[in-house]
């Protein structure tokens, strides 16, 4: 049976927050729109603002066909996802850039920019299926939603938020050196 499992009060807890989408979460939603339809509607109704960054849009729309590219661009627009230009603000985050680079030195540039987005919008959430790149040593995994795709596959999307306490502890250690 195809279904999405999540805690019932998810939308009330994250009411009015920024939600940044990673490439993996956008792929999950576009591949299983019937499963996500109610959750997306509930999140929008609760006042959440959907956002992502330019490099996620690039990764998500990368395709061999113009039709697929156009479909994915329309999807982003239909979902009401704004694209936050985090690269324009990189000069505001010198200490944070160093902290995130030291915490996860092999992270992709896109993941690095998503970390900075969570830093800039301190109460925002990141939605991703990529758990190995978003470390709980600096982030709190607040919620997990599971998608039973009915094809012998269960997908888990996490809602991550930057932990100020964990960040401050890491920053003190890293910046002291």
Mind explaining what this structure looks like?
It is a single chain. This protein has 177 residues and is an alpha/beta fold. It has one domain (3-176). The protein contains eight helices and seven strands. It has helices at 10-13, 23-31, 33-45, 54-61, 66-79, 94-103, 109-120, 164-176, and strands spanning 3-5, 18-21, 49-52, 82-83, 125-128, 139-148, 154-162. A seven-stranded mixed sheet has the order 1-6-7-5-2-3-4.
Short note summarizing the structure:
By secondary structure, the protein is α/β, with parallel strands linked by helices. The protein is 47% helix and 20% strand. The protein contains eight helices and seven strands.
List its traits.
177 residues; alpha/beta; 8 helices; 7 strands
Q: Could you spell the SSE succession in H and E letters?
A: EHEHHEHHEHHEEEH
| Cα Rg | 16 Å
Largest sheet features: 7 strands, mixed
Quantity of strands, as a count = 7
| Uncertain residue segments | none
Walk across the major sheet and give the strand order: 1-6-7-5-2-3-4
State the secondary-structure class.
Answer: alpha/beta
